[in-house]
Amino acid sequence: MAKFKVTPPGFRAGEINRDTVIHRPPLELTEEERARARMLRVDRKMSFSDIADVMGKDQSAVEKALSTIRMPVANPKRRTINVTLEDAAFIEKQLLPGEPFWKGVHRLLEQL
Questions:
Q1: What is the pLDDT of residue 14?
Q2: Which residues contact 70 (CB under 8 A, 6 or more apart)?
Q3: Are residues 28 and 56 in the same domain?
Q4: Same domain for 52 and 92?
Q5: Which of 12, 41, 50, 59 has the smallest number of Cβ neighbours within 10 A?
């Protein structure tokens, strides 16, 4: 029987590359304003113009600030382990309460 080893993501996983930050043009919104704008865009599904009106900022400044933030993919085609959505749904059903996806995959592979 094959033994699989799964490595958890590194402590810097998801962080922006430092070179990208250096070469990025300056933004008109602060980090707090960017976080609020992202919340309005992602959670409340507001348009750029509505966000600009709520925050009292120029629409182009909001668009520029949000274009540099990672946004959730509306229709993801793959999951962490590069499987189809159906396979990912099966794995999610098998997860224990509070278990990270990668640990669930590791546990399921060990049972093979």
A1: 74
A2: 14
A3: yes
A4: no
A5: 12
Percent of the chain whose pLDDT exceeds 90: 34
- 87 and 62 fall within a common domain: no
- Considering only the C-alpha atoms of the chain, give the largest distance between any 2 of them, rounded to a whole number of Å: 62
Domain containing residue 54: 18-72
CA distances from 106 to 20, 36, 90, 100, 101 (A): 33, 36, 14, 10, 9
The alpha carbons of the chain give a radius of gyration, in whole angstroms, of 19
CB of 107 within 8 A of CB of 91?
no
Q: Which of 22-26, 28-32, 38-42, 70-74 has the lowest mean pLDDT?
A: 70-74
Average pLDDT over residues 83-95: 88
Which of 106, 55, 54, 62 lies closest to 80 in space, CA to CA? 106
Residues 62 and 99 reside in one and the same domain: no
Would you call 111 helix, strand, or coil by DSSP? Answer: coil
